[in-house]
Amino acid sequence: MAKTHPYIPNSDESAIRQMLSEIGLQSIAELFEDIPAAIRSKADLPVPSKMTELETRRHVEGLLAKNLSTRDVLSFLGAGVWSHHVPAAIDAIITRGEFLTSYTPYQPEISQGMLQAMFEYQSLICELTGMDYANSSLYDWSTALGEAARMAARVTGRYEFLFPKFIHPERLATLRTFCDPVDIKLVEVTQDKRSGSVDVSDLKNKLSSRTAGFYLEYPSFLGFVEQAVDEIEAAVHQVGSLFVAGCEPISLGALKPPSDFNTDIVVGEGQPLGSHMNYGGPLLGIFACRGETLLRQMPGRIIGKTTTQDGKRDAYCMALQTREQHIRREKATSNICTNEALLALAASMYLSLLGPKGMSEVCSAILDRTRYAIDSLRKLPGVVAPAFDAFHFMEFTVNFDKTGKKVSEINDGLLKAGIQGGLDLSSYFPELGQAALYCFTEVHTHRDIDMLADKLRMILEA
User: 450 Cβ partners below 8 Å, 6+ apart?
Assistant: First the structure.
């Protein structure tokens, strides 16, 4: 009989047999029969033998040394996770034990500090977006979008959701994952290949009494800013649909807040607000809305502020919990019902440290880098930068068709020179040709951009 594992509950043979018998199986292997045999590993996992603490540390550090970070290479890759400066104070606070191990509790009286931090996060997101209500975060932008589509369907009783062509392809994949099980039909709206703007006539043709909502990214995945927002909003609301905006939060230090064009739901990615790139995650999903009707359908956790029974002290609690699965079960508005509390704390600290003036200064720095990069790259022979004739924030598309080089070749050459190039868009949007999405934030200097331009010139002339 196999020895019971000291760290795995119910690992002795009698417990395993009892559990298998209860669910009518003969072996643990039967639990994995839905995984195609062709992709199952046939060999034993190469688990090393026992190691001392020192040996383990050296082994893990050796594995980590194979990775390259933005400290090792100059990176111009964005596309959903961006390189921004994180003030030292944020890391100092969120790594304290009382925050690092905390979670939004169901017994709020035991964690008033974290609840207050989540309440402040909600308040700051509302101030940033101009919306009435915000939850205490979701997993990431993609899941927030999926929840927004399902929420729009619940509120309107309609099951068709429209989106523009040039959105993040992985975000679209997540949206499909959320919509398919509940039969929400997704409809693509065309965008102009020259300016990137939504084709308003196509949008109006596709809007109908079946449309639950329309989603617009602001700025777009490709970095350009939609200019016809007011016309789009009017068309969407005219047919009784909801207008959903996807926002990169730093940009709201320079652009009009979504509330200015009557947005119903705002989603976005909070990683730029004080979180490191973290190998692509965890991330921070922003979700906000306007009006009490939408508030009561909003997914995720909401923290409210009240007072103690004697009325002498502020107190924080979970609010509107009747929307959640631990009370409503299968009738819950969502089964996500959790949050990214630690990263939301980082975001609230970031916004508090910078304030409106600091956010404006960061945006000014990003706009400066964006403009300088456009001016530098468009001077390269055969390079079109930006590919869209529009105002861009932080990211823009660079087309290399006239150079005769593939983006993959260019990126390989850049990486050999210690530079991470832009995201290759050729497989996502073939109609854009050999194009890449480049990102420029406040962490880049003019000298960094000059180095990129010089290396690109050498690769293109080779």
Answer: 376
